Amino acid sequence: MLRVFVLHGPNLNLLGQREPEVYGSDTLDSIGAALDALAASLGATLSHRQSNHEGQLIDWLHEARAGADGVVLNPGGLTHTSVALRDAITACERPVVEVHISNVYARETFRKTSLVAPVCIGSVSGFGKVSYALGLRGLIDYLNRS
Q1: Which is catalytic among the residues 23, 53, 105, 142?
Q2: Cα 136 to Cα 24, 99, 107, 108, 129, distances in angstroms
Q3: DSSP string spanning 80-142?
C-alpha cells in the first residue's frame, strides 16, 4: 500500500469553527475520516498531522523521506511566507500536492502568491473539503504512474 502523509498547517485545527463562510463547517477530523475512506479505496494509508508550528511541519516533511511515498499539504498561511517550508518540500524528495479549502486567488492580494507551489507536483484550491480529496487522487495517480 502507498503511504501518504496529510499535513495541515496553522489554524486548520479550528476548521468547523473559524470563518465557516470561508472554510466551511467540516472539522479536520471529519475531513480526515472521509480521506481515510477514499485512500483505502485507492490502495493507500494516511497519516494525518496538524501543527501551528512551522518547524514541526518541516520535521514531518523530513520524516516523509523515509516514512511516506508522498504528501498532501495544506500549509495554511505559511503558503505565502515560508521559504523554509518550501526548502523542506524540496528536501523531502517526495511528491507533494498543495491543497487549500478556499480559493486563494479570489481572496486578498497577498494570498495570490504561493512560495510552495513551484516545488509541488500540483495545487488544488477553492473546492472546500473536496480540495483534499482531489489532491489525494492526483497524488495517488502520480505515484501509480511513477
Answers
A1: 23
A2: 19, 9, 24, 26, 12
A3: GT-HHHHHHHHHHTS-EEEEESS-GGGS-GGGG--SSGGGSSEEEESSTTHHHHHHHHHHHHH
Please name the helix (run of DSSP H) or strand (run of DSSP E) that holds residue 58, with its range, or none. helix 54-67
Domains delineated in the chain: 2-145 (3.40.50.9100)
- Buried b vs exposed e over 49-70: b needs ≥16 C-beta within 10 Å? ebbeebeebbebbeebeeebbb
Predicted TM-score (pTM) of this structure? 0.93
Q: Could you confirm whether 8 is annotated as catalytic?
A: no
Cell numbers describing residue 87: 526548502
Gap between the Cα atoms of 56 and 104, Å rounded: 24
Q: What's phi and psi for 114, nearest 5 deg? A: -110, 120
Choice among 100, 105, 132, 142 that is catalytic: 100
pLDDT digits (tens, 9 = 90+) for 85-142: 999 999 999 999 999 998 888 777 877 789 999 999 999 999 999 999 999 999 999 9
